[in-house]
Amino acid sequence: MYIVMVSPECAPVAKVGGLGDVVHGLSRELALRGNAVELVLPMYDCMHTERIEDLHRAYADLWVPFHDISIHCDVYSGRVDGLSCFFIKPNSAERFFERGRYYGESDDAERFAFFSRACLEFLLKSDKHPDIIHCHDWQTALVPVLLYEIYNGIGMTHPRVCYTLHNVGHQGVTGEHILRQAGLDPTAMMIPERLLDHTHADAVNLMKGGIVYSNFTTTVSPRYMEEIRHSELGEGLQDTLNHHAGKVGGVLNGVDYEAWNPQSDPHIPANYGVDDLTPKADNRQALRRRLLIRDLFKPIVAVVSRLDRQKGADLIRHAAFFSLANHAQFVLLGSAAEEELNAAFWGLKHYLNDNQDCHLEIGYDEGLSHLIYAGADMLVIPSVYEPCGLTQMIAMRYGTVPVVRNTGGLADTVFDANYSEVPFEQRNGYVFNDLTTDGLESALGRGIGLWYRYPEYFRQLRVNGMQRDLSWNHPGQDYMNIYELIRA
Length: 488
Fold this sequence. Notes:
By secondary structure, the chain is α/β, with parallel strands linked by helices. The chain has helices spanning 18-32, 108-125, 142-149, 177-182, 186-189, 206-213, 222-230, 238-243, 280-291, 313-325, 339-351, 366-375, 391-397, 408-413, 437-453, 455-467, 473-487; strands at 2-6, 36-42, 53-66, 69-80, 83-90, 132-136, 160-165, 173-175, 203-205, 216-219, 248-250, 300-304, 329-334, 358-362, 378-381, 401-405, 430-432. The chain has a nine-stranded mixed β-sheet, with helices on both faces. A six-stranded parallel β-sheet has the order 14-13-12-15-16-17, sandwiched between helices. Helix 11 (339-351) links the parallel strand 13 (329-334) and strand 14. It is globular and about 70 Å long. The model has no long low-confidence stretch (mean pLDDT 97).
């Protein structure tokens, strides 16, 4: 099968969060299954071009419609971890992807609407006819709209579109000018059955358009699809998703087992596997030395996370104090984009600076994240909502027990040690329901208590997590089934 991924991110060259990891991991899995996979991304000025092999200009005469003019683009090609990638570089005064960052610009809707049109124009002009175009998040939601409203009529009748929602908290709500920019008729598009926003009578909802026009829409976990269809987590998209219920579903993300493998991880001092967890103690000591915390008989509770309200920032803060008050050590690696939250966590860092059982690292460090997963005993993820979550799956891969809130992909992957209905050999963490300090304490307190009182049971939770296959193997097959369905 010939599959084209259209995405604003792909690790390791253009990564802001989990989206980049997912696109990279899924693309590699599909390629390993014998499919011809190509990726199309914007050519950002801040991307890590050193990670692209044989980067060269592959197409120099791409003219992309933009309002009543056309903008000239160059298309560059290269390989990222063996994947064939194309990067679209507009040559215009707008400098769409020369802003020094990936997102956060006032004209993000215009930038990515242009990218969506440019992708299809490139496929058309280069005579590419993929079986599947797989689009990701609101930034590429216009691709299926443009394909069926414009490009079907000029020869692109072969591709079918799979569209994945990574986070419906960001839907691409914008003005109707975006339609005119892309060459679409606002009168035809601005109706409830198409792109008209569910809340604002004069606004376009790009994500809604992707759902309406795609052949199949997925989210990144089955539980999250249920939540966004049947609760306020749908952020107004509930009716649209339910109207199109016959072509929506949830597919749990996977983890790249090559990048995250304690048996071969170059970022940790002592490699280990499920058959011998003894070297994990060496990583615990190395983590303590690096973060200057005491080497004592105490469990290490960790957080590796974006620090924002979706991730449960207030409960993350409470987890630090609760851990320290209950004879555990606490480490954190994360940063906040929101200025107020960033200042709050810097204040917390200074407040706890003299505590020798605690270290907060404000920022992101890839090597340190690996060491935390390998050295910690528990990982706390108190999310308000979580479409999928990768950190709990990585933690389990490293024998670190997750403590999570019962939502989204966390609920699909973590089964409570005491209260789950699954057999004991499938239980792998601690889960709480209520988004409160009491809820967090109920789960984290049980985890710390088990670590002290019943170490063999705690070890079994580690083993249970490590033995579960959370690679891209199963979701890769799920997506192949979806592709075959929509091709038929």
